[in-house]
Amino acid sequence: MLKLNFNWDQIGVGLRFMMLVVLGINAILFFVFKSYAGIVRYTNLEDTSRLVMVNAIAAFFYLVINIFLLHSRNYFTLQVVAINFFITSFVIISYRLGVRYVFNFYKTLSYGGLRIQKKKVVVYDTSGDGLHIKKVMNSLPDGDMQVVAFLDDSFSTNGKLLEGIPIYSTHESNLAKLSAEGVEILILASKHIEKNKLNELVDTCLTYGIKIQQVPAMLDWLNGKLDTQQLQNINIEDLLEREVIKIHNEAIYSALKGKKILVTGAAGSIGSELVRQLLSYRPSLIILCDKAETPMHDFVLEVQEKYKNASIKPYLGDICDRQRMEHLFEVYTPQIVFHAAAYKHVPLMEDNPSIAVLNNVGGTKMLAELAVANNVEKFVMVSTDKAVNPTNVMGASKRIAEIFTQSYFTHLASLNEDESHQTTKFVTTRFGNVLGSNGSVLPRFKKQLEKGGPITVTHPDITRYFMTIPEACLLVIEAGVMGQGGEIFIFDMGKPIKIADLARKVIKLSGKEPDRDIRIVYTGLRPGEKLYEELLSSAENSRPTYHEKIMIADVRQYDFAVVEKKVNKLINSARQHYTLETVFLMKDLVPEFVSNNLAYEKVNVPKK
């Protein structure tokens, strides 16, 4: 009709034949490609693409018929076929989109959508994930959220529209404007955000009362669909984490592949993560040593489920039990030892100094001697920043363990200077608080928050270094492999964080206001606790290694004969459970140990 300018005399010629051909070809194509089967009210881009493809194939057949069958009649000319293709595509797609719009409008009315006050939401990320979340949110008539803007710092998108919705940069002025317009929630569509940027964004949002939530990975969406109930508050751990560490995998792989590795404290937070990471380097066997039966049982089940071909041997035993440890070394002959077993709760160790010594000092000493006796290649001890200028029994006990293993290695190396025999290499790793570890402050804060508060902090100015468990264990493995014996490796812990500021952020992230909804109560420093942790004492310096996050502490060297004599005396005192005498002997070994516990204030006074 268009081609012939609606000249009906000419239009009638061949029209019936053309209609039969068109209907027949389209019926066959619709049946073959199932383009009729899509539910019209849920039409999407995939459905429209399929319709355009069917029309294009039909157009091809029209031209073929015109060339090979009709010869000179030219019913299906190129002009007619082109006009038909565009009009047909437009009409079919418009019909489907029109039905979808009407259905959604009717559904909105049936749910009382005009009366529902929806929360205004901003989505961070204009990639496919962000756009998909917008579609999900805005297509739920019974939902309680409406995406009104996107956030993105890309210069190519800032100030533009995405499906009719404006895109803003994350500048503070834009967030202030959005907050004034009633935006309540910021949804993070992607977890791949630089940590500095994430912290800056979260801090700005909290300043203007905008709640931050994140979506689970698409694979975790229920039945392949996102439900607003799946939105999760952002975790404080996500903000404290740092960028992924790059390590020399090849060197570690060659050093650990095919080796028998012993991990003490394997059921604990640090030990278990060490095991998980060590498994990726294909050791021939990992011996899991711990005295905690239930955590060991649970961890073994986890390893067996996640790592089908893992070669592990759970071994229940106390590192202070010499006969049991001798049996372990004799039967399994480990080549590398990662020593993570320790008592580490400061208040408990203040009340039980003899137990701290027996476990942290005596257990380490025994394992070190057995490692040498059984030709272990490397002994890696996990220490703590509390060993630096210690103010508590736990920190002092770990410092003594450091002193013993370091001086022991120096002594052994001097004995073997002219011999071909390679002595065990003792390496110490020292780092601060670990997020999510047993005894970490964050799990306690969360439990207090669930109970409605208050959140307890010991002192307004107390600060701590933090790192994640995987990051800490990764650095322990890296340092252990690079160590040649006698080193104390310290890690770049970033900037120290005020615990009070951490508590406030935890409260704000839960959608509550500090000191209004949840109180923060200061309880006073606990016995042995200090305000600031250090990675180096005033008498220590550090030197860099090839890894930017790992340094070597230059510490005071000790005479092993003197150290051994004093350590034996200390352990004997601890076996008798003499409290004050044991602490005095710890001070004798670690002169910089100044107790913050009133019960041991006599220890701080030098003997005449």
Describe it for me?
This protein has 608 residues and is of the alpha/beta class. The chain has three domains: 8-110, no CATH class; 119-234, NAD(P)-binding Rossmann-like Domain (Rossmann fold, 3-Layer(aba) Sandwich); 258-433 and 473-494 and 537-602, NAD(P)-binding Rossmann-like Domain (Rossmann fold, 3-Layer(aba) Sandwich), CATH 3.40.50. The protein is 45% helix and 15% strand. The chain is built from 20 helices and 22 strands. It has a nine-stranded mixed beta sheet with strand order 10-9-8-11-12-13-18-22-21, sandwiched between helices. Helix 5 links the parallel strand 1 and strand 2. Helix 2 packs across helix 3 and helix 14 packs across helix 19. The chain is elongated.
